[in-house]
Write the structure tokens for this entry.
Amino acid sequence: MATRVTAELRVGCSSWTSEAWNGRLYPPGLPPGQRLPYYARFFDTVEVDATYYAIPARAMVRGWAQRTPDSFQFALKLSRELMEPGKPLDDGKVEAFLAAAAALGPKLTGVVAQFPPSFRPPKDGNEGAAGQLERLVTRLAPHVPLAIELRDKGWFQGARAKWLAAHFAEHDAALAWSSLTFLDVPDLLTTNRIYLRFIGDHTTIPESSLGETRVDRTAELQKWADSVQRRLDEVDRALVFFNNHFMGYAPASADSFLRMMGRSGVPNLGRALDTPY
């Protein structure tokens, strides 16, 4: 019997543009245009927050790929234009987003659709939000490695949970595992990928306090590290991304998670400012 190859594990941050990293991860005076290649010295993946707010131009996305090492990979947040409540999918916008994602070539490792807490399932049937979710998954999953983040507990209860698991599995879409302060998201596998997000909230750690670890969430980190470790023999790839608001400083949180997973941590993180640019 062939030996099962250990799943690929990539851990990074939810954006590379944080001003709070100046003088910490980034040397003082580092031009904004050099942040991405500098970030890529420490991490092998990033989740792009900017694509949530607008569908990017292909030339911009191609530039991201060109400024990073061949082994680097990107996950894109799905544009909110494709997730507007109650609105049908705009095929032109879908095609524009897919074309932008395709500009990454083999560097595209995932697309995550982040739905708000107000996106709730109906009590019965597949109308409303359920129908919208069904159409989105059916349209996008054949083209990109899709993960869906849901933030209402109704999606994970009773018959609705069974429907969701079956629909996602049918279309090879992942349920995003999310560390949220207001909801327990199940570590449900619906495909051969894990997509895990550490979000936090904007009230516990205000913007002015970012750039240093401010909250001890070791227990939460360990819980999810254990979940990922248990499932690595069931998947091909595990992607893990940290927001600054989870503990205060996403690079340090990523480093802690890697060490919990028995990895060597983020290389040279403690000496980041010694690295010339």
Residues 135 and 151 are 18 Å apart (CA to CA). The longest helix spans residues 218-231.
